[in-house]
Here is the input.
Amino acid sequence: MKHTDALDILQNIYGYDSFRPQQGRIIDAVIDGKDALVLMPTGGGKSMCYQVPALVRRGTGIVISPLIALMQDQVDALRALNLNAAFINSSMSARQVAETEAALLRGDIDLLYVAPERLLMDSMLSLLSQCTLALFAIDEAHCVSTWGHDFRKEYMGLSVLHEQFPGVPRIALTATADQRTREEIVNNLALGDASQFISSFDRPNIRYAINEDGNAKEAMLRFLDENHKNDAGIVYCLSRKKVEDLAAWLVKQGRQALPYHAGMDATTRAEHQRRFLLEDGVIIVATIAFGMGIDKPDVRFVVHLNLPKSVEAYYQETGRAGRDGLPANAWMSYGLQDVINLRSMMQDSTADEQHKRVEHHKLESMLGLAELSTCRRQSLLAYFDDELPKACGNCDNCLNPPITWDATEAAQMALSCVYRTGQRFGVNYLIDVLMGKDAERIRRFGHDKQSTFGIGAQRSAADWRTLYRQLIAKGLLSIDLGGHGSLILTEQARPILRGQRSLELRQISRSESSSKRKKRRNVEQVAPQDQPLWEKLRALRTSLSEGKPAYLVFSDSTLVDMVDQRPTNHEQMSAVSGVGKHKLEKYGDAFINLIREHDMFSDYDSVDGDEVHQDSTLNTIT
Ligand code: ADP
Ligand code: ZN
Here is the structure.
């Protein structure tokens, strides 16, 4: 009975066919008045898990959310479905607050968003005690954990909900995976009796690729040209200067790119963020300061031009791509300098021993992921104790299995060059010696008389850099911080130098890297001959968006479905995924007319288009 209500809401209001497997179970539990802890990856559909029960149960659903920007987004999305949603926060005037409170008391609000500090005010708690409450949803529940990086002390106070409103079910939701965070959420929010719903953290629609060396900028541009001609995406790099330079360079290449970092003034930053959200196809070049609180569903790619400092950070940042479930790319390029930086950071750390061990482990894992020759996704998920039984088929290593080579002899040369020059020099100098470069500095130290001088001339400097990077990443060399980044042999280098152990390394072939790489077909959302219609639908969506993000009208996946189904009447239109009753009434005719008109005029040249159409639509995510 209840579930019929829930399903009815899903189909009529949201315009979707069915709940995702976990959603159904969670929604049933909350409708039954039970507490729940929900761990689900970004894009998994967490919002539905509290919105639907809030609509089914009597009274208002209170949603606790840490960021005003997120509240605005969610409320806009709900209002676009004709639901009574509101928020109360510090951006509002006293009068607006009073009006919203009055509506709340009248029982006119289905879902109310508040920040924790507001919720915990005595006045707010006493107001709520006079209302019928459907549930409390605690969004971004990992903010209650001191372990993570988003700790918010107000979240600690939320355990009062349990004491003051014992009859109201609570549902805590987060996309942060690890065991320790989970335990802290349960303890700090008094959720000991809650049912736990833990989904796999896999994001199957994201294709992971990690590239090494080469010209990162050019490689990125090639990647964008091949895969993302007009798509929105985020490019992360570490320094503000690099952000500025890269954004300017991308603009020169004809891209709409905007910089974003903490050193910019707040107005410009807000403007860039606004354009990213509202306009189609904007690229944001940012330091990691960008992302939290950005809920844009159609980010098609995330690029890293530096190694993130942990696998958690990598997962979180790449996770901003493809929230809508459509194919997306996570593309990274990194080099020797990244490895040196990470290693130095680790050695330089002033943290206590216990903390250092944790940091060490994190950096080691990130390097391990970067240098991996097997499935990236399996390794990424394993890091979060989430098992993927088979290789994924949707990462660079699965698609183009790397070739390994016996690097023992080359490694011996590289390591012995470090040894013979006294473990006092950095990579560039070592490479010069190996290549036998005629340099005053080398002669001054007498290294031109060493046995390693010139023994590596048959390889290129770039190859030696790669090799040194791999040796550092594998822990055979460490960095001496006092000595300006000189390389030092570690214990592990010994058996290699003595010929007691061999070394297999991943082959980096530069020429092959881009040309042979299989072009990503399934990132194209629509077949080439449907591109004109797709563009028209997107333009129509923007023209109807009234200054709000265009995806609030219809999401990309809804437009893709429209291109596929070509609805020409209301009944067909309501069968399109994401078209509920309200949006059908509001926008249905405009889109139907556009599709009719388009198909009428393009009938002549689409006679032989069928076959292509069939096989290049996107149901190819595996
Ligand atoms: P999360 O908060 O977990 O990142 P969202 O709640 O934003 O994810 O949902 C991600 C996307 O999936 C949204 O576009 C949402 O409308 C869509 N979605 C959620 N549940 C379903 C469903 N049962 N069927 C189809 N689409 C869904
Ligand atoms: Zn894989």
